[in-house]
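pasting for ref
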Amino acid sequence: MKKYLLLFATIISVTSCVPLGKLNEALDANTMLGYKNDSLHNKLNDTVANFTNSLRVLKGSVSSLQDSVNYYRTLANKPTVITEGEVFLNQMLGLSLISKSELAGIKTTSGNSNVWLEGFKADINKYTSSDADIKLNKGFVFVDIADKILFSSGSSMPSKKSKEVLATIANLLQAQPDLSFMIEGHTDDKAFKRKRNDNWNLSVSRAAAVAKILQTKYNINPKRIIAAGRSEFIPVDDNQTKEGRLNNRRIRIVIMPAVTQVMNLNK
């Protein structure tokens, strides 16, 4: 009991040393500090919340931007699609067969596809044999026919099969009456056992034989025809293999369309 009375007396003595006004001021200041602390804490929470929201929006923007970058990168890496007609005309420009101003004046249908070229390809599909290999290259149309279809080995005498194949080529040429063309004979590099003949003679004789058939049997105007022998010197494959030599032995009909056929020029 004496201990409690002593503690109470001590508290009373201490508090009695601080003026009442000072004590109230201290209590009020402490209360204000509590208010300021609560306010700062709330502001900190709001700032963190706003930052978190802004960060989320920024991440979304970065993700969207990355998608756009990937999309345009894909477009940039995507190869440009060039039509066969455009390649054909650009090759003619490179060979100085047409001028830049003429090329710029070309009128084409939708998709940059040349009207004459599309019509010619339609005629190829309509008339030519499956034995003929058609290519468009360097301003020319190449029609390649394997020699085994047209001739016996080492011979310039046309076979029965040759007339069937040449009939389809003749139909194509008749459907395009303004086209001039050259018939080329090509051989492999194998030498003849008999010295009285060689690859030059064989290639020329075969080209001439095809020209005569087109003229006499199918009434192709001979003024449109050029016959030439190229011997073994323009191979399309390796002469070291049997298959390569077979591909090199061929008749090639080279068709050179006039510029006015390939193009529709602005007047």
